[in-house]
Amino acid sequence: MIRASRNHPGWWAALGHRLSGLALALFLPAHFLVLGLALEGGDALDGMLVWTDRPLVKVAEWGLVMLLTLHLGFGLRVLALEFLPWRDPLKMLISLGAGASVLAGLVFWIMVA
């Protein structure tokens, strides 16, 4: 059973911020591996770039962009909570952060596809 405090949009925004940050942290080793391939030479990097042209990888890239924008949007919400004196338009900030991440993801998807 979900407690009443967990039904608040702020709780879900905080959860989204934490989970997107965790997912991005799990992505970092793969990112550093690809950067390491660039140091090994052009052939290794070219092989990885050919592999990244697969449709499943393109979908994963879209997911990564969504996670980045969600983390950014909800992180800005946290900064606003910490440093700004007003507290009433929280639902609007949460909606704007989520909407901006979806918009960025859609723009990325249109540009890649």
From TrEMBL:
The chain crosses the membrane at residues 21-39, 59-80, 92-112. Its cofactor is heme. InterPro entries: SdhC_prok (IPR039023), SQR/QFR_C/D (IPR034804), SuccDH_FuR_B_TM-su (IPR000701). It is found in: Membrane. Its main location: membrane. GO terms for cellular component: membrane. GO terms for molecular function: metal ion binding. Keywords: Heme, Iron, Membrane, Metal-binding, Transmembrane, Transmembrane helix. It comes from the Bacteria. It holds the Pfam family Sdh_cyt. Membrane-anchoring subunit of succinate dehydrogenase (SDH). This is Succinate dehydrogenase. It comes from Nisaea acidiphila. The lineage of its organism: Bacteria, Pseudomonadati, Pseudomonadota, Alphaproteobacteria, Rhodospirillales.
